Amino acid sequence: MVLTIQFPSWLSPELIPGFPIRWYGVMYIVAFGIAFFLYRKQIRERRFPMNDDQLAQLFWWGCLSLILGARIFATIVYETSDVYRRQPWLVFWPFRNGQFVGVQGMSYHGGVIGGLAAIIIYSRVRRFDHREIGDMFAASIPLGYTFGRLGNFTNGELWGRVYTGPWGMLFPSAEPLPVSESWVQEAARQAGIAIQNGAMLVNLPRHPSQLYEALFEGVILWAVIWFFRNRKPFKGFLIGLYVVGYGLCRFVIEYFREPDAELGYRIQLVETNLPTAYVHPLLSFSTGQVFSLIMIIAGLVWLLIAARLPNRQPVLVYLDSAHVPVAAQNVARKPSRSRRRRRKPR
């Protein structure tokens, strides 16, 4: 009896088998749609001075920059061959061997860089406060990101390390492991998988790390940031909260996710020869962990800086067509009263 969960046999990367439309691409569209809806909701509840045309332009350039950054970063960091250096037009070429395969391979961290660049440039051109624009994005993106990881799940990719617990899952595309290894035999026994006589390789259940990321980096992180959207202590706080929160969640989950076979661990403070599918040593760090650690540090530094920037008081609601905020009105009134009080004794 197999004591593990089988990857759904009815789930395939294609939305409709035989047609060049993949679930992964559909999930990206859903993610952008959810982020757009949540961003517009914040604009309306705050009466933020941005009209629908400006919002559409912001999202157009933001999504384009995100995709460009995610794709280019993935080909630079995660592609070990020099195919894209020799043939750079293949970076965005959706055909391989005469077949349509779409643009596969995106890097989240590259998407963050591209998205931040779009926010800063757009804010300067349109004369918006980039801290407020960024805060509203931080409260919109994580829930949409959930669907990006669900797209990875439907592709049956980015699986985790071997796991024989109650929610370990057999991914058909996971790399089979050598039966000659004693730990492989023991894992197969614990999972109730019979090894056929003469078999050299066996597929073992893995952590469904895509679903871990969808839950923690998506739903839970979004819920925390959404709670603070009207309670932030200063402008830019949600940006820092998102960057630190995502980096922390991703750093921890990477211990359950098998690193890319071509890359392995980028940093090993203690050398190990243990297979990456078997165990992730505490002091060995994957590429994703290195970039996540950089995100955590950058987010903490940003929080320290943003808390001291001028005009840092958060504005919850803009009142009128002149876009005068509640906080600004209150601040403007208090000094005049105090001056009147000081004059009375004289």
- How many domains make up the coordinates? 1
How many β-strands, per DSSP? 8
| Secondary structure category | mainly alpha
DSSP strand content: 5-15%
**What's the pLDDT, averaged over the residues?**
85
Listing every helix as H and every strand as E from the N terminus to the C terminus, the arrangement reads EHHHEEHHHEEHEHHEEHH
Tell me, what's the shape?
globular
Please estimate the helix content.
40-55%
- Low-pLDDT sequence parts: 326-346
Tally of individual helices: 11
Largest sheet: 2 strands, parallel
Radius of gyration: 24 Å
* Span of the ends, CA to CA: 93 Å
- What is the spatial order of strands in the main beta sheet? 1-4
How would you explain this protein's 3D organization?
By secondary structure, this protein is mainly alpha-helical. The protein has one domain (5-343). The chain is built from eleven helices and eight strands. The chain has helices at 23-46, 52-77, 83-86, 108-126, 130-138, 141-154, 182-191, 209-228, 237-253, 287-306, 326-343, and strands at 5-6, 95-96, 99-100, 169-170, 177-178, 201-202, 265-268, 284-286. The strands form four sheets. The chain has a two-stranded parallel ribbon with strand order 1-4. Strands 2-3 form a two-stranded antiparallel sheet. A hairpin with a 2-residue loop joins strand 2 (95-96) and strand 3 (99-100). Helix 5 (130-138) packs across helix 9 (237-253) and helix 6 packs antiparallel against helix 8. It is globular.
